[in-house]
Specification:
The protein has 73 residues and is an alpha+beta fold. The protein contains one helix and three strands, in the order E-E-H-E. It has one helix at residues 27-46, and strands at residues 2-4, 7-13, 66-72. The longest helix has 20 residues, at 27-46. The two termini are 16 Å apart. The model has no long low-confidence stretch (mean pLDDT 95).
Length: 73
């Protein structure tokens, strides 16, 4: 994890516990990664923050050895 001046990057090593039945990253994990990366980036410039809400639209399955969420505010 990297977080500094409105930017964050979170990397998760893929393993069976975070995948769904087809072997792709589970949608809840993808959402968690997006939420945490956004929260940490915002907190690095604004202080203590919480997520009020978010919407996520999946365009393709997440697969591979690592899942990476990168945010720039």
């Amino acid at each position: 994890m990297r977080c500094w001046q409105g930017e964050s990057e979170l990397v998760l090593e893929m393993r069976p516990e975070v995948t769904q039945h087809h072997g792709f990253a589970h949608g809840a994990i993808v959402g968690l990664m997006a939420d945490k990366a956004c929260t940490w980036a915002a907190a690095s410039v604004a202080g203590d923050v919480v997520t009020g809400s978010y919407t996520i639209n999946f365009v393709a399955p997440a697969h591979g050895e690592r899942l990476r969420a990168t945010v720039r505010c």
